[in-house]
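Recap from last week: sequence in, structure out.
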Amino acid sequence: MGFRLTKQEKNWVLYDVGNSAFTLLVSTIMPIYFNHLASTAGLSDVDYLAYWGYAASISTLLVALLGPVFGTMADYKGFKKPIFLAFLAVGAVGCISLGFAKQWLLFLILFVIAKVGYSGSLIFYDSMLPDVTTAERMDNLSSLGYAWGYIGSCLPFVACLVPVLFADSFGLTMASAMLLAFCITALWWVGMSLPLVRTYQQKHFVPRSPGAVSASFSRLWNTLKNARKEKKAFLFLLAFFFYIDGVYTIIDMATAYGSALGLDSTGLLLALLVTQIVAFPFAILFGRLAKNHSSEKLISICIMAYFGIAVFAIFLQHQWQFWTLAVLVGMFQGGIQALSRSYFTKIIPAEQSGEYFGLLDICGKGAAFLGTTIVSVVSQITGSMSTGVGMIALLFVIGFVLFRMTAKTPETVRK
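Predicted structure tokens:
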């Protein structure tokens, strides 16, 4: 293997295993259950897809607004773990609460709360990377986090599928089966986070001073003003904004899109389980490739591949096409996310990782807000879901051009 994980690195990876269970639930069972609630209330397929997109947009916009402020605060000594725990608690409690929602609008409100907790926790989890490993091991460790997250999330997902798919056999209502699924996911998520919570130590930090909370706003403002001077980091943030838009939009809306097209629900769930299984070896592969090939080259390949995936999605009509899409997404999803995370970590100051990852979250979550909103609005205006989905491809083109500019720009940030 040639890459043995330390105890701290293993615990960090375990959180990817835990939170990925919620990710998989959001992209598979949850939209199908929302479709059930929406159709019972008389919503059309186009409105169902649009409202699900709007909810995803609102949650990502909230995190984009909150992330930089809390991220700046988290850089002070002793702040990162408590803030991480607060977002984790909001996410887990919100997840369980979804099981008690019987009306589609209440369900969407609770979904927004749970998604804010989940996404917020990831800002501080990602910013822990320089504290748990070295610069030379970041690409590989980041890839392993995503890889084990994909495969590890399959176990709770299968445990959730059993009561949902066989609810009648167990004498359960759909609502009871979903409550069980939400509880399984939340308990897995929290359980896998405990080793990291127990052992994590914040090595890189800004010394705490009186008025740390108010001072964090001043530091954030200074960072925003100075971001343009750090040309490489600034260009990467712009590129990331566009290309990760398509990635997050595809993740958030794949099952909702397939359901709206009338594809078999069980087939959609199994196809996305295949995505997780395929993503495991390919995420590890990209981590290994990063040893001998530049991150710039590998990220560029992933962006081009996702452009092809977005174009392919426009013509999606049959179940076998969705399965093909699921495999293709699995091949490149882990690579583009893991390498982007480690690449950004290398070009920012380690002691300001929370602050900078808060800015990255503005771009990532702001992009996801833009992507899901574009798909929702264009779908409603044109009456064509395929036209809405097709808009994603253009953003990969812009992201690719900006990222190539980033790769050619010399690094100015010094750790």
